[in-house]
UniProtKB/TrEMBL annotation:
Keywords: Membrane, Transmembrane, Transmembrane helix. This is Tetratricopeptide repeat protein. It comes from Promicromonospora umidemergens. Residues 14-26 have a biased composition (Low complexity). The chain crosses the membrane at residues 66-87, 93-115, 136-154. Residues 1-42 are annotated as: Disordered.
Length: 516
């Protein structure tokens, strides 16, 4: 029996695990053709080549030494750069970006296929980097496109902000120094407002859009200005249906108040031609608004102030405004406003009389004549009209002879005791005014059979005549100052003197005119 040990069969060795690199891809089988130094040439991994091309720099083709393909990849990137630069206020079209990303995808796929094809069908070539280095470069450069894209977006947004800020500044500067007359610069305001609206509509999330509300408020305030009637023109313009928000709603809300302020201010200034259309529009188009509801009471207060000012301590106000206020109020369709005119007709004549009397006492005879003439002409049926005419006559005579202004004509004259007959030997109508114990006017028709006398000649005053017009009045006895009146103006007698007569008994006098 043999004692030699039995032969044993050795166990097979387990294969070693395939190494991996940074890409996570198992390397291709090593090349069988040695390099010059006898080391095998490692083939480029497809995934690494694809990732390198996603950098946008054609690094996958560079790694594979595919020079023609590299030129094409760089040309694509250069084309995008040419489109994107210089960076303007608007970004490039999204189709450029999508097309470029699609091209990168194709370049990555092409590089992967090229690497796989070379590994399987060709003798491995020398690559630019080792597989491990290429993998590291691929992962690092993969961030190039996102980073550059983000930088472009941020930079382009800042460029846009600068452009928008410049537009807003120019619009704001176009309004500087404009007078507060909106109608003359309406186009300038429209252009500036259009810039503001366009900025918010097209770029709502920009810093420039945040500035717009304040700029719109400034534009609107400047367009309205400090004058109430200028504000109406601006508010009415921005309230038109074609105006963009936000001014249209704001202007439509403010229009009743603007009409109210302009109309009432114009009435206070006596510019009734401007006041009436404003207030008429307010009452007709906005009857339920607060300004329209408050208008009758405000007009009543204004009317009362006008009447009070006719006899203020500082003198009389604009009497034209006082007299025209009646017809102004009567011209409205509103019953409440028309009623104010009826009350004014009873109050204004008394105010005008007080004004005229105060001016007479202050020896302002010319002014008193004007005020009292207004009362007589505009309110001939007023109860104060007769007395106003007597004070007016006394004022006209006192303007020529201050002695006639010593005392006001009495409200109630004493009964007449003396009869005075005046004969007119002139072919012109004759008016004689007098003041004293009584004040009045004697008006005599023209004498058809009479003529103008030569200088130094005079008619023979024979008293009663069928052909010579005459007028007889009964007046209280006393001293009188007389004058003539032509076309409403009181004048001296011919020769430049006033008549100063004492009438204590019945009598008469004759008048005539000389040739001029």
């Amino acid at each position: 029996m043999s004692t030699d040990p039995a032969p044993t069969t050795p166990l097979p060795e387990e294969p070693a695990a395939a190494p991996t690199d940074a890409t996570g891809e198992a390397p291709e089988p090593p090349a069988t053709s040695p390099d010059a130094d006898g080391a095998p040439r490692p083939a480029a991994r497809p995934l690494t080549a694809a990732l390198l091309n996603l950098s946008g720099l054609g690094l996958g083709y560079l790694h594979l030494r595919a020079w023609l393909r590299l030129v094409v990849a760089l040309a694509a990137t250069a084309g995008l750069v040419w489109v994107a630069l210089p960076i303007g206020r608007e970004p490039i079209a999204v189709w450029w970006a999508l097309g470029y990303l699609g091209a990168l995808g194709l370049f990555a796929l092409d590089a992967a296929l090229l690497a796989r094809h070379r590994a399987r069908h060709e003798t491995p070539r020398r690559n630019v980097w080792t597989p491990r280095a290429a993998g590291r470069i691929a992962w690092v450069t993969l961030a190039v496109v996102p980073l550059l894209g983000g930088a472009y977006v941020v930079t382009q947004q800042e460029v846009l902000e600068q452009h928008l800020a410049h537009d807003l500044d120019q619009a704001e500067e176009s309004l500087e120094g404009r007078p507060s007359v909106f109608a003359a610069y309406k186009d300038v305001y429209d252009a500036a407002y259009a810039t503001y609206v366009r900025t918010v509509a097209e770029h709502p999330r920009t810093r420039a859009a945040d500035r717009v509300p304040g700029l719109v408020d400034g534009l609107y305030a400047q367009a309205k200005g400090d004058d109430a009637c200028n504000a109406v023109a601006a508010v009415r313009h921005f309230a038109e249906p074609g105006t963009a928000e936000p001014l249209r709603t704001a202007a439509q809300h403010e229009l009743p108040g603007a009409l109210h302020d302009c109309g009432l201010r114009s009435a206070e200034r006596g510019v009734f031609a401007s006041a009436r259309p404003m207030l008429t529009e307010l009452l007709a188009d906005h009857p339920a608004s607060d300004p329209a509801q408050a208008l009758p009471e405000e007009l009543a207060a204004w009317r009362d102030d006008v009447i009070k000012s006719l006899s203020s301590k500082g003198g009389c106000s604009d009497t034209r405004q006082a007299t025209e206020s009646t017809s102004f109020l009567a011209g409205f369709d509103s019953g409440k406003v028309k009623a104010l005119a009826d009350e004014a007709r009873t109050k204004i004549p008394a105010g005008l009389l007080r004004c005229g009397v105060a001016q007479f006492k202050n020896e302002q005879y010319t002014e008193a004549q004007g005020v009292l003439s207004t009362l007589i002409d505009v309110y001939p049926r007023a109860k104060d009209a007769d007395y106003a005419e007597r004070v007016q006559i006394a004022s006209g005579i006192a303007r020529l002879d201050p002695r006639a202004g010593v005392e006001l004509p009495p409200l109630t004259e004493p009964d007449g005791t003396v009869t005075l007959t005046v004969h007119n030997y002139s072919p012109d109508q004759f008016e004689m005014v007098y003041t004293g114990p009584a004040t009045g006017v004697i008006t005599i028709d023209p004498c058809e059979d009479c003529h103008h006398y030569a200088k130094g000649d005079q008619p023979e005053c024979v008293g009663y005549s069928l052909t010579v017009p005459s007028e007889t009045v009964t007046i209280p006895a006393g001293d009188y100052i007389t004058a003539t009146r032509q076309d409403g103006t009181i004048l001296d007698w011919e020769g430049g003197s006033l008549g100063k007569e004492s009438y204590t008994a019945d009598g008469g006098l004759c008048t005539w005119t000389h040739e001029r």
